[in-house]
């Protein structure tokens, strides 16, 4: 374990030093792209050598029904601060529905291990303080990739502080139990994203642009409720890093996630939750002082 962590630190350090080249043509709306790409690569390497292997071992060792119950348990806890944010946004019906979800799943779902509320036609919502700020017109600010936390914006990064204090796990005592719960949640959610990781690796010409566009479009969709057309964040060509071979061929390509216009009378398609590395909606916020992934 110690050897594996040492190798991860070395790899991350090498990548950080090698990845600090300035992006020649930063994408419009992404002024921190040079830093963001470096941090994205570091996060990706840490995930590749640390988190992904642990998640794969978790899937191998833990039966699927148990994993589903773990997911339901933390989802039920998340509904508490989702309800709070929906009420702050004056979405009274959604907030009351979220409170009912918590009550039903806690009482009849054995402490949230079973999702009885969904069977009772109470839908799962998304909510965090970044979305609440966006609901009241606070601009997102530039896109930024946080160390280990992943995709964010200036607005959403500010919301993380409130999300931390709004997460019931923050108040679990003793601290060792709180850390254990956060750790189980981290491993479980990463395990749930294993399939998305493979799809992203196979489908994306430029993983950074794909994740950025998916994250920003998803957040915009959640704020507007699908009433607005989702913006196109990828009009600019991929940046030129000064390479003369394969990169030149890729220049001008676009990996934008652009929604297809629905046929007349059809409902607008709901965008996907995004690939691994982007977890829209709820935030995973660890005990103070310890950075981690943004997880549902």
TrEMBL record:
Record keyword Repeat present: no
Family: Belongs to the MlaA family.
Listed PANTHER family: INTERMEMBRANE PHOSPHOLIPID TRANSPORT SYSTEM LIPOPROTEIN MLAA, LIPOPROTEIN VACJ-RELATED
A Pfam family hit: MlaA
Region (Disordered): 234-253, 262-296
Keywords from the UniProt entry: Lipoprotein, Signal
GO cellular component: membrane
Keyword Signal annotated: yes
Protein's recorded name: Lipoprotein
Taxonomic source organism: Caballeronia catudaia
Signal sequence, start to end: 1-18
Biological process annotations from GO: intermembrane phospholipid transfer
Stretches with biased composition (Low complexity): 242-253, 262-277
Origin organism lineage: Bacteria, Pseudomonadati, Pseudomonadota, Betaproteobacteria, Burkholderiales
